[in-house]
Amino acid sequence: MGQNIKEARLRRNLSADVVAGRAFTSRPTLVRIEKGDSGVGIGIYASVLQALGQLEALANIASIESDKVGQDLIAQSLPPRVRIRKTKA
């Protein structure tokens, strides 16, 4: 993820100082993000993605559509059929 953020910054021809300023963080923190440091808070990642115009990428990280394992588990737990119970009148 860090490498993708760095490449997005470079494609936009933005310096680390500019992106850090727009994200309200320090340049060393941005460098840590670009190196993939897991100790940086998710909120800082969100700020940097926002500064790059890529905030929607954060929503895709745990999206239902990309969770193949979760979809398979749900499909396995679905009953083969559903019965409607008749009530006595």
TrEMBL record:
GO MF annotations in UniProt: DNA binding
Matching SMART domains: HTH_XRE (SM00530)
Domain of life, per lineage: Bacteria
PROSITE patterns in the cross-refs: HTH_CROC1
HTH cro/C1-type domain span: 5-58
InterPro entries: Cro/C1-type_HTH, Lambda_DNA-bd_dom_sf
Record-given protein name: HTH cro/C1-type domain-containing protein
Organism of derivation: Asticcacaulis benevestitus DSM 16100 = ATCC BAA-896
